[in-house]
Design goal:
Strand content: 15-25%
Shape: globular
Radius of gyration: 24 Å
Oligomer: single chain
Length: 333
């Protein structure tokens, strides 16, 4: 820290961000609503995947009020392809809460923001610093890596104890002026320069302040996240068609995967006779490695579709089937 209580590299990092930052849609007109939607979408999802979905989502839901006034299935439809669908449900629930409890204005205090569904400490810090210019810190994977290298902190990236060390450091470093640019600069540095493998130290604006660079250990810290062995799952789904309509099934809250989403019925879940194999795909959901088969089938004689099922015209299936798994299975159908 310098005599003003500011880290010596702050100004250099902010100057670098000002000239090197990527032109991302959520950085234009950074209103609380736009920042919030982007931060929820970017959780566990890449910038490349989010960018087109973000722009399409905001065309359909340009305001928080319109999001709150929408049906859940409509929101899920426009979230399709991003996965982790609880994020979309919480986004809508939070919009309803803002309308009901804050007169439709996104709250500007930490205590109010953190109470909204789907918002944790990181997201609250991002919204308050970027949209409201309040000096709240944030810590994500990029920030953990940048701090680990800058300050020579050794640990595993996803270790809770290591993460716990990062928040007090982030709180000390966030400047009173331009806190949003500071937080985004840290994340931008981690995403584009201080990358997990082969960091571009020659292009780093704060390399002369970096302990890992000085000790030549930048490729050794932080330790990579502990890997989790994939769980193999084999699924068979059924294509049951009658009079131009296909039977779809609303999965329950108790399902291990794809909870509360419309899907094709699983074999064994209703009285039906599987037949010809139509398609097979490999798919991954979190740490699950799926081998999925789609078979033609027909309901057994006298069988009745259960209440959670619905006959849907073929041309309307993609309004219901939002997971990318179904898009793979239905390709060409």
């Amino acid at each position: 820290m310098n005599g003003e209580g500011q880290w010596e590299g702050t100004r250099g990092l902010l100057r670098w961000y000002g000239r090197a930052k990527r032109d991302l849609p959520w950085r234009r007109n950074a209103t609380p609503y736009r920042v919030w939607v982007s931060e929820i979408m970017l959780q566990q999802t890449t910038v490349a995947a989010v960018t087109p979905k973000y722009e399409a989502f905001l065309r359909r839901f340009p305001t928080l009020a319109l999001l709150a006034d929408s049906e859940e299935d409509e929101v899920l439809k426009h979230w399709a392809g991003l996965g982790y669908y609880s994020r979309a449900r919480n986004l809508r629930r939070a919009a309803l809460s803002v309308v009901a409890d804050h007169n439709g204005e996104f709250p500007a205090t930490f205590d109010a923001v953190i109470k909204l569904p789907g918002i944790g400490r990181y997201t609250a810090g991002a919204i308050l610093s970027i949209a409201f210019q309040k000096p709240y810190p944030l810590v994500d994977g990029n920030v953990i890596r940048v701090f680990s290298r800058l300050f020579g902190l050794k640990g595993r990236a996803n270790d809770p104890g290591f993460l716990k060390k990062m928040w007090p450091l982030a709180e000390r470093l966030v400047p009173q002026a331009s806190p949003g640019d500071w937080n985004q600069a840290l994340m931008e540095l981690g995403a584009t320069v201080c990358t997990p493998a082969t960091p571009s130290c020659g292009a780093c604006p704060v390399a002369n302040h970096c302990i890992a660079f000085k000790k030549n250990i930048q490729d050794k810290i932080p330790l990579p996240k502990a890997s989790r062995k994939p769980v193999a799952v084999r699924w068979t789904f059924l294509w049951i068609e009658k009079n131009g309509k296909v039977l779809l099934w609303r999965r329950s809250e108790k399902e291990r995967l794809l909870k509360n989403l419309w899907g094709l019925p699983e074999a064994g879940r209703l009285a039906a006779s599987p037949g010809r194999l139509l398609a097979t795909v490999a798919h991954a959901i979190t740490h699950h490695a799926l081998e999925v088969a789609l078979r033609e089938a027909s309901l057994d004689k006298c069988a009745v579709a259960p209440p959670e099922a619905r006959w849907v015209p073929r041309g309307e299936m993609r309004d219901y089937l939002v997971s990318s798994l179904w898009l793979k299975l239905l390709k060409g159908r």
